[in-house]
Amino acid sequence: MSSNIISFEGNYSELVEAIKSKTGLVVINFFATWCEPCKKLGMQLPKIAQENSNVTFFKVDIDSNEQIAKMYNIIHIPQLSFMRVEGKTINDLDTILGFDVNKINNGLSRYR
Description:
Helix content: 25-40%
CATH superfamily: Glutaredoxin
Strand content: 25-35%
Oligomer: single chain
Number of strands: 5
CATH class: Alpha Beta
Mean pLDDT: 95
Distance between the termini: 21 Å
Shape: globular
Strand order of the largest sheet: 1-3-2-4-5
Low-confidence stretches: none
Largest sheet: 5 strands, mixed
Order of helices and strands: EHEHEHEEH
Structural class: alpha/beta
């Protein structure tokens, strides 16, 4: 797995602190192990991360991190949330629902 992919386990406050500790673009991949499109994204994510080494990717399993899923109002998966820290504020930039490599690459190009 690429060094810029972090499998996150913890609570919402810990995730916020982890995001704030990063510079540049942060992308959170909300997924579930039973979700087929999530599995497809999971297989492509190392390549995407390698091609975007200046982006930090957090993987959050919604079944083992239910509090985080509730805080981010996750209804559909996979969901990719694009964020950037500016000062002490986390700015939500965009959200992509489902697995679409073109949309993901477009988002990465737009926000990095």
